[in-house]
Amino acid sequence: MANNIAKKVSWSGEGTPLLNGAEERGYSGQASGGSMFHIGRMSTVDLEEETINTEELDPVKLRPSEIPHNEKLLSLKYESLDYDNSENQLFLEEERRMSPMSFRCLEISRWFICGLIGLLTGLIACFIDVVVEYLAGKKYEAVKHYIDKFTEDGGLSVSLLLWAILNSTFVMVGAILVAFFEPIAAGSGIPQIKCYLNGVKIPRVVRLKTLLVKVCGVICSVAGGLAVGKEGPMIHSGAVVAAGVSQGRSTSLKKDFKIFEYFRRDTEKRDFVSAGAAAGVSAAFGAPVGGVLFSLEEGASFWNQMLTWRIFFASMISTFTLNFFMTIYKGKPGEFSNPGLINFGRFDSENVEYNLYEIPLFIVMGAIGGLLGALFNVLNYWLTIFRIRYLHRRCLQVMEAMLVAAVSAAVSFAMIYFSSDCQPLKKNSQEEYPLQLFCADGEYNAMATAFFNTPEKSVTSLFHSPPGTYNPLTLALFTLAYFLLAFWTYGLTVSAGVFIPSLLIGAAWGRLFGILLSLLFPSKNTIWADPGKYALMGAAAQLGGIVRMTLSLTVILVEATGNVTYGLPIMLVLMTAKIVGDYFIEGLYDVHIRLQSVPFLHSEAPATSHWLTAREVMSSPVTSFNKIEKVGTIVDVLSATSTNHNGFPVVVNSGTDNESGRLCGLILRSQLIVLLKHKVFVERMRSQQNRRRLQLKDFRDAYPRFPPIQSIHVSQDERECLMDLQEFMNPTPYTVPEETSLPRVFKLFRALGLRHLVVVDDVNRVIGLVTRKDLARYHMGKHGLEEMDLAHA
Amino acid sequence: MANNIAKKVSWSGEGTPLLNGAEERGYSGQASGGSMFHIGRMSTVDLEEETINTEELDPVKLRPSEIPHNEKLLSLKYESLDYDNSENQLFLEEERRMSPMSFRCLEISRWFICGLIGLLTGLIACFIDVVVEYLAGKKYEAVKHYIDKFTEDGGLSVSLLLWAILNSTFVMVGAILVAFFEPIAAGSGIPQIKCYLNGVKIPRVVRLKTLLVKVCGVICSVAGGLAVGKEGPMIHSGAVVAAGVSQGRSTSLKKDFKIFEYFRRDTEKRDFVSAGAAAGVSAAFGAPVGGVLFSLEEGASFWNQMLTWRIFFASMISTFTLNFFMTIYKGKPGEFSNPGLINFGRFDSENVEYNLYEIPLFIVMGAIGGLLGALFNVLNYWLTIFRIRYLHRRCLQVMEAMLVAAVSAAVSFAMIYFSSDCQPLKKNSQEEYPLQLFCADGEYNAMATAFFNTPEKSVTSLFHSPPGTYNPLTLALFTLAYFLLAFWTYGLTVSAGVFIPSLLIGAAWGRLFGILLSLLFPSKNTIWADPGKYALMGAAAQLGGIVRMTLSLTVILVEATGNVTYGLPIMLVLMTAKIVGDYFIEGLYDVHIRLQSVPFLHSEAPATSHWLTAREVMSSPVTSFNKIEKVGTIVDVLSATSTNHNGFPVVVNSGTDNESGRLCGLILRSQLIVLLKHKVFVERMRSQQNRRRLQLKDFRDAYPRFPPIQSIHVSQDERECLMDLQEFMNPTPYTVPEETSLPRVFKLFRALGLRHLVVVDDVNRVIGLVTRKDLARYHMGKHGLEEMDLAHA
């Protein structure tokens, strides 16, 4: 039972593991042969049974009630990205052939691609915004029409029904798209992009189809009135755009433009994906610097000046494009006042200033945000476990999404119905959708406005509406309702982000906090008077409490509010929220990453891990090849399911004794596959000279979807041939001595974005291999260093 | 002759080499024994003669007229920082003894220190600002009094004389301080901090005395009316504060607070210095994010999330402190409108918007800025060469500074005299110092204002004054005069920055550009109407053309203007300026770094360097020690001036044959010195057990000023003893095989901040050592890869 459940955890919360369903044909072959890790230490694992056996199989873990135990596992199904260039002879020859001018051309194409990434990401943001606004407007019109018509007849239930049906329909379309066409497009996509930037290859995450489903899905869920935002998905969209544009071809569309072939490797692609993610953040929040810092915070290990500069360029272009087209759309070209999808409005220091003695108050708000955020994460964690357990059928998922949509509508309606918070209708008011409902003429229902607005507008309204706009009770009820809706919504099989709901919840209780303050200390001075800044701090606290981002979030919020003097309080609030929240549970994205058992590498090794050395963490024994190896051996090793390695040290054996040979290179599974496919065999008749020499292009053409070993037919004759690996292996892999401490290994591994680190003894003989999972297994638990188990789930 | 000149290049442009003068006693011992580089390849170097001999001594280079040839050299006098921890047994034992709680305490102290750095940096900025403003006010009063008195009497020359004398006196005090007390405090300090963050140990750069001289010096030079700014020096000041605070002691004051002892090593110190530099930028420009990016751009190689976050904290605290105290000083507590020393004023997108078709214009301005910047740098380069050649006596330097001050006053006066740009005196005008001079009543002389204002205020005025405030001719003359004064001033023996003069020059011609545009196309539309945005772009272009910073400068300018929509044009302008400028000459700071022959590592290896391998770049042969080595041998090696290495591989010899042994560790000169000082010898009677075991504390106490080998007396008896290096050496140094390509070596070296990288053969025998200079020697010249020579100058 437990096994089933653990196996079925997948990104979207949908039940079918990504690698097992019929629709994953394109990938399954590769995946089954492609799990990169040595299981030397896991000799008891039985792959056929697909259970979560581990070396030290704990009987307790088999109890069905022990669902959360799978977070103590690291899945072996994820491969790593090859961020380290394989500097083999082919590569070096190509580099040496290139003139300074060609390097300059390459650099220019990198800039061009980044500009293109920014442009396309900005356009996608525009498209989403325009369509959502159009649909929301239509919906409002229809509902308003009915409400106006039936309010006096008492037939409100018809309006409610209409509203609920409209919302559910939208959401149904979105959920069907996601559940049946591309489950990886569910959610905000930020956890997946975090993993990708961290160096983990998440299947299907940067494909064109994912992008299409994501964009349509997010439009449907926002238009469907769910408690979601369209900002998170922009980050994913930007990343997909980047991965697509930079490769100069679409594997899905079977179209190869024959450009940018140089960039067809993981190193370059990951760099461009960072730029895409940054462009997405930039378009979402109008925060180009925040975007850059997001990419750096999540992805960077090695600081590359030119890369950062290009990322910044993509971000700038993205926010500029959005700004440019949105101002044209709104009929005010050239005003450039819409840098992002969400516009917090400017906080001018002259109007909304804060004082030194307010900082402790802000810190208290940060702590509240941390608590509420932890509560949100815990609830969502349980809900996700529940979903994994019982809601793994697609139709169930679609139905749940529709249910949430209907409940959202019903709750909103109920609150509007029972609230009597009437506010005078002001001229030039920010409310685009005032609903009179049961209010007197010339007034509008504030609660209705809060629910009918797009969440973005509600946030701005909470920040900037003058004191007295909102009734405290309205705010309290709204906070509660929206909190419950938001935690229920996150993890549904729809494309949607959690940024805006978090900001909205926080802004609501933050404003409430501000109002209560001014009620408690009415006469003190006028500095409490504006609850807008408390709304801002509350929003920061709540968002920080949920996602636990720090540096980039501060900058995003500072950029979005356009006021640098708010930097310090926002930073303090976010830090407090993170510290308080981390005491209970990690951030929402990390919870979901953990539920996926992704081998995520944090930026530093656990503090107390100096006890461990490379000898203890490495996997051994290692399957190695000789420089000149028999084809049959290679095919057998690659085909063996028990040794699904992805990188193989190449050694020179000094004698015939059993001891391992001296390291002279490292070759990847993908390279061997290409070699086998092109039958680069030696000593097989003399016709070999006629054969075209294998070029880097052949490797690039096969990238990134290398065929599985099973698809390559090697005849019995060919099995007897030899393969010369010398030209294709990386002759200078990084190595460490076996007594190197874990932090040192970790630093080297992370700084260079390695995939395999060879452990050698004092005469350079291979004794082990350190891979991502070997490092990711160690983490700081409540009681010091803890070790996770590895599993094929 | 050429030798003399090359030898005498030093940071301040003053003639005495840092290591030769009598006042460098404290350092000279260490330096003479401390140059870290192997000179295996430089067997012909004769250290006694102090000439610039190199292996391939070119006779052409000896011609006296060939001054600039020394920029093809790399000096061997600079040591590198040990950014890589030496994970020896002592270190590992300490780390392993520490509980998770102690790691948490360490982390908290890091945060505390960063807060303190921010606070102190902010206070220093306050102090400078207040004192400068006070002195400038006094000076204006005095001069205005005389001008008012004598204008009608025709005795203007008296006023001029008074003005010139006042200015010269201020500057004289500043110049004397710098020239006679701490020459390293000259200039902006940014090149030095760049080098430090790059990993080069610049002598005396982070000492308390340097800070004191820097602060007093900058006050004097700004008050003395030189064409300088006080922003650059803030970065240096922040760095010194950081280096001081983080060590918990002052070596100069001989005071040890016995705190923060854990941080007494290069790794931690360099991290704190990054925070200090960021805090300095933040205080100078009110740009905390810009500060972080400055530190990252200049210093970071390995991205460390927690470190970045702490740097950001220091920056925030710094700008907040400045803001807080300045608002109190100005009598408006709580308004927080002074985030930085320079305040550009807010560019509101509603008022000063730009349009798509203006972007090409901005790019043209960027090109102009690049050209003018290159001109500035070339002129300053020649001037610096001239100074090195003829102005190396201290009194000459002081006199030159005074001359510049007097000329600055005279030029200003002349321009005020001949200009008749009278502007009506407006109420609430930004001009704090209106001078009527020959204007009608109710008017003031615009040129006089431009010269009398602090440069910061002039910049703001150029950005924000309404159209028509400045006469085009005034602007043109002002640009010319200020350009000449600024290039003459930079490199004087005074503490002063180049940011503000650059901004001012650029703002002046930028505004002129805007005015000309509106004259050329008068009727087109109102978008040209405000020349303020052209002033901003001009300022960006000029500054970018001179200093060639990119990412951080964009963010600094965006933060200082408070408008994110200007981000893209500013970025494009800076990029254009950099591209155009780089075609002619590198950035001003880089010019000065090159003139110092500092082995500066850029962020990436030259593009076409795949031809080279570790075998070609490494230094060999390498002096190695055995695990248990005779004291006499160690003393001899350390004392030998011909092998002034700083790191020694420790090897195990398999046999008695002559071939080098297998690598088993790496030990630093500084560690050996401490070992010798504490006489950690074995096999010397049995009394050894009584001896206290050497602890990490002993190494920390000696840090950073390890005594020279000459100061350690080793008796003839002791020379026969043995020393066991095993406990103290780093047992897991990073290694590369000899066929590793240069870019790969470079990446490893830079990513981990290494000082020594051991090159080994296929059985782990030491065959060479790669150090900073070996990598810094290669750079892209006009004709492809070029190699620099190494010299002891």
UniProtKB/TrEMBL annotation, chains A, B:
User: Which InterPro entries would you find in this protein's record?
Assistant: CBS_dom (IPR000644), CBS_dom_sf (IPR046342), CIC-7 (IPR002249), Cl-channel/antiporter (IPR051280), Cl-channel_core (IPR014743), ClC (IPR001807)
Q: Does the keyword Disulfide bond apply?
A: no
Question: Ribonucleoprotein: present as a keyword of the record?
Answer: no
| Transmembrane stretches, start-end | 111-136, 156-181, 211-229, 272-295, 307-329, 359-383, 395-418, 473-492, 498-522, 534-558, 564-585
Write the record's keywords in alphabetical order, separated by commas: CBS domain, Chloride, Ion transport, Membrane, Repeat, Transmembrane, Transmembrane helix, Transport
Residues in the signal sequence: none
Gene Ontology CC annotations of this record:
lysosomal membrane
**Where found?**
Membrane
Please give the PROSITE patterns that the UniProt record associates with this protein.
CBS (PS51371)
Return the Pfam families for the record.
Answer: CBS, Voltage_CLC
Database matches in PANTHER family: CHLORIDE CHANNEL PROTEIN CLC FAMILY MEMBER, H(+)_CL(-) EXCHANGE TRANSPORTER 7
Name of this chain's protein:
Chloride channel protein
Q: Which organism is it from?
A: Silurus asotus
Q: What is the lineage of its organism?
A: Eukaryota, Metazoa, Chordata, Craniata, Vertebrata
